[in-house]
């Protein structure tokens, strides 16, 4: 039978360890975020619906984004045991220069709309972490100001080729003169995708003060105070815009851009050229023949063509076929360091985070971006240790199995379907009256 007694003070004393309360509310909430999804939950509470949905949303039914995230969940890791993993190296060279992590900050549009510190917060955080920062053509900070915020780090400029070619190339020239080392040419935007959340929210630049937005803003006064008391939105690519996001994108995107245009752009740029938006093997091979320095497997975060290919699913085949000839980068759906490690194991040299970065920014400004990078960095290192590897170079396809959820229809069934004759409706002749 259990013997019980009244606890003595000397027995309780070692158990009574009270933490000093954290009085800084921002630090308290960010310290409590252990995953990117935790940062997302904080961001949703602090950001008006239209701005949050612009980050969160994708095209049409948002199937592409859901599938991309599901693909990372549908993997199985294969660890090795009894390895000395007391130290791990999470860095290597990307496009000929060192990075401290195999991920960087992706180009994002209208970033100061999400949180007023915008791209400057991202550039500062990237500089501290030793990872690249990519500025979007649709960014809300100038090329020169981002360079000033990250003077010694890796700055990449993302280009949308406009209908106004001279204006596009003027941006390229500015980025080159500012010392950006990589041009990231996005090629999956002949027209804007159907981003239905933005249409339903009436998302415009600048945001319209309607009854709905005012009501939605009441529990989020800090966002509106920051927005109304800081410099009005301006862009990396244009001074001002008044209208909907869809109107702006359709005004800018050029549906005539082709491989010859890409070759011409490449000839104008003195640094590295990476083509973003590759979604099949044949295009990857053509880009290798064109001599680009890297390709990014991406479906634009699911924001262009819904039901587009899943980049992570494409990765093994593309890596086998062209990985020896060009660097392969990957984005879309990355929400953890384990996702990053799986990508590297299957052949990616580098990955990019967009939404994960913006969740941190919305959750806590520059400190929130630091927290995003810290969470992912910790997860990358921990996953590597648990797999039994000391360096990124040791990761290989044997460490990961992609489990099958979505499978193509078997070839014989497709052939059988194509063999079925198409029935045509009989053409009825009109009766002619005498």
TrEMBL record:
| Record field: catalytic activity | (S)-lactate + A = pyruvate + AH2
PROSITE patterns in the record? FMN_HYDROXY_ACID_DH_1 (PS00557), FMN_HYDROXY_ACID_DH_2 (PS51349)
Which molecular function terms from Gene Ontology are attached?
Answer: FMN binding; oxidoreductase activity
Against SUPFAM superfamilies, the record matches this protein to:
FMN-linked oxidoreductases
Q: Which residues form the active site?
A: 300 (proton acceptor)
Query: InterPro entries of this UniProt entry?
Result: Aldolase_TIM (IPR013785), Alpha-hydoxy_acid_DH_FMN (IPR012133), FMN-dep_DH (IPR000262), FMN_HAD (IPR037396), FMN_hydac_DH_AS (IPR008259)
Pfam family of the protein (one): FMN_dh
PANTHER family recorded for this chain?
2-HYDROXYACID OXIDASE 1 (PTHR10578:SF107), S -2-HYDROXY-ACID OXIDASE-RELATED (PTHR10578)
State the family it belongs to. Answer: Belongs to the FMN-dependent alpha-hydroxy acid dehydrogenase family.
Q: Where does FMN bind?
A: 107-109, 136, 158, 186, 276, 298, 354-355
Entry keyword set: Flavoprotein, FMN, Oxidoreductase
Instruction: Give every FMN hydroxy acid dehydrogenase domain span.
Output: 28-405
Superkingdom as given in the UniProt entry: Bacteria
Q: Where does the chain bind glyoxylate? A: 54, 160, 195, 300, 303
Q: What is this protein called?
A: Putative L-lactate dehydrogenase
**Which cofactor(s) are needed, names only?**
FMN
């Amino acid at each position: 039978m259990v013997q019980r007694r009244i606890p003595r003070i000397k027995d309780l004393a070692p158990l009574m360890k009270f933490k000093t309360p954290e009085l800084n509310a921002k630090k308290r909430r960010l310290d409590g975020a252990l995953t990117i999804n935790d940062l997302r939950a904080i961001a949703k509470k602090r950001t008006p619906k239209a701005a949050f949905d612009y980050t969160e949303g994708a095209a049409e039914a948002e199937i592409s984004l859901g599938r991309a995230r599901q693909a990372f969940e549908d993997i199985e890791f294969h660890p090795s045991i009894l390895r000395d993993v007391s130290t791990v190296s999470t860095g290597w060279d990307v496009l000929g220069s060192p990075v401290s992590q195999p991920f960087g900050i992706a180009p994002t549009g209208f970033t100061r709309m999400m949180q007023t510190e915008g791209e400057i917060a991202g550039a500062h955080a990237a500089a501290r972490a030793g990872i690249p920062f990519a500025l979007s053509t649709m960014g809300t900070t100038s090329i020169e100001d981002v360079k000033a915020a990250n003077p010694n780090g890796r700055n990449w400029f993302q280009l949308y080729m406009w209908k106004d070619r001279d204006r596009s190339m003027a941006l390229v020239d500015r980025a080159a003169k500012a010392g950006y080392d990589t041009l990231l040419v996005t090629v999956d935007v002949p027209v804007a995708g159907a981003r239905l959340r933005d249409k339903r929210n009436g998302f415009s630049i600048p945001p319209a003060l309607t009854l709905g937005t005012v009501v939605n803003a009441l529990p989020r006064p800090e966002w509106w105070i920051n927005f109304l008391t800081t410099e009005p939105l301006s862009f990396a690519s244009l001074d001002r815009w008044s209208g909907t996001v869809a109107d702006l994108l359709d005004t800018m995107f050029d549906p005539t851009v082709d491989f010859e245009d890409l070759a011409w752009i490449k000839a104008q740029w003195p640094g590295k050229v990476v083509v973003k938006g590759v979604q099949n093997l044949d295009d990857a091979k053509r880009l290798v023949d064109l001599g680009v320095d890297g390709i990014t497997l991406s479906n634009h975060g699911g924001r262009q063509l819904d039901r587009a290919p899943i980049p992570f699913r494409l990765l093994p085949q593309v890596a086998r076929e062209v990985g020896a000839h060009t660097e392969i980068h990957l984005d879309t759906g990355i929400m953890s360091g384990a996702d990053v490690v799986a990508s590297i194991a299957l052949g990616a040299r580098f990955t990019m985070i967009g939404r994960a970065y913006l969740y941190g920014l919305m959750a806590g400004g520059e400190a929130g971006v630091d927290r995003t990078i810290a969470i992912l960095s910790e997860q990358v290192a921990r996953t590597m240790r648990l797999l039994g590897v000391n360096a990124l170079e040791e990761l290989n396809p044997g460490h990961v199995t992609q489990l099958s959820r979505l499978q193509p229809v078997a070839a014989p069934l497709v052939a059988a379907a194509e063999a079925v004759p198409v029935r045509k409706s009989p053409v009825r002749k009109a009766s002619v009256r005498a």
